[in-house]
Design a protein that fits this description.
- By secondary structure, the protein is of the alpha+beta class.
- The chain has one domain.
- Helices cover 34% and strands 23% of the residues.
- It has a five-stranded mixed sheet with strand order 2-8-7-4-5, with no helix packed on it. A four-stranded antiparallel sheet has the order 1-3-6-9.
- The termini are far apart.
- It is found in: Cell membrane.
- InterPro entries: BIM1-like (IPR046936), BIM1-like_dom (IPR046530).
- Its main location: membrane.
Length: 283
């Protein structure tokens, strides 16, 4: 029960964070690429090309991060190249040289949408250690650097915890804006069956996208924001359904146990006069 409540709260937080990063946020709240999870440092257009963290501020908040089986999720508003993830094991790293541990091999190219990457190469690190994950990439931003690619930076501050103590539901999935297109209306009157809550949520979001596109086209960032909203919403619905099934199963189990105990009690009670009858028969 506590798991479902915590998961639902985490999913709502992630959904709000995704909408902030995804819907036409490039140039106002983020650069071409930003951390969806863990939370990144405050962003400004004037600082996002300045290493090592692309932010005028220091550590504002920390996110717990597992020592093993960890992941980072990106919100991608525009195409980017030569993406690299590095880690600095310090309370507030200020120099590029401190980010010496590259935890993901260089990624050649990413498209608008959302992507998830495993970070599971930490050595000689213990729970309670503070660190900062750096994202560096190349991209083009209209009106800057004469339209040429330039380096961008972003940082997320974390505290390592044991995997068994990590309870956050990370929004780890891969989807591009091209993958999330409105379906072509069908002339058939047959209604599709909903196989699960997640598919139903994605279908609803796609229908909304189709209606919006009739009047104006959506940007890649907006499509990406709708995609993450539908997927996270679907996961939240699935978690709620699982919780209801668990509660019903528990109630049914208690009813069956009470019924069993009542039958057992009735069988173990000797009817009045049964012993006397048995003795006369033996005589």
């Amino acid at each position: 029960m506590h798991f479902y409540i915590a998961s639902a709260g985490t999913l709502l937080s992630v959904l709000a964070h995704a909408q902030q990063h995804g819907e036409d946020a490039e140039g106002t709240k983020m650069g071409p690429v930003a951390f969806l999870w863990p939370s990144d440092r405050n962003w400004t257009a004037a600082a996002d090309n300045i290493g090592p963290c692309g932010s005028p501020g220091g550590v504002m908040r920390r996110t717990t991060f597992p020592l093993s089986q960890g992941s980072v999720a990106l919100s991608i508003a525009d195409e980017a190249w030569n993406i690299a993830f590095r880690v600095a094991y310090a309370n507030n790293p200020l120099q590029q040289a401190q980010f010496s541990d590259q935890v993901v091999s260089n990624i050649s190219e990413i498209a608008p949408g959302h992507q998830c990457y495993k970070l599971d190469q930490f050595e000689d690190v213990s729970a309670g250690t503070n660190a900062t994950i750096q994202l560096e990439y190349w991209s083009e931003y209209e009106g800057e650097n004469k339209g040429n690619n330039q380096s961008f930076f972003a940082c997320a501050d974390i505290t390592f915890v044991e995997a068994k103590d990590f309870t956050i539901q990370v929004p780890c999935f891969n989807v591009t804006s091209d993958d999330f297109n409105a379906p072509t209306p069908s002339t058939s009157s047959t209604l599709p069956s909903a196989t699960d809550a997640s598919q139903a949520s994605q279908t609803a979001a796609a229908s909304s996208l189709s209606a919006s596109s009739s009047s104006s086209s959506l940007s890649a960032g907006a499509k990406a924001g709708i995609a993450v909203g539908s997927i996270v919403g679907g996961v939240a619905i699935t978690a709620l359904v699982a919780f209801i099934v668990w509660r019903r199963g528990k109630a049914t189990g208690l009813a069956n146990r009470n019924s069993y105990e009542l039958r057992a009690k009735n069988l173990s009670t000797t009817p009045e006069g049964a012993s006397a009858t048995s003795c006369r028969d033996n005589a």
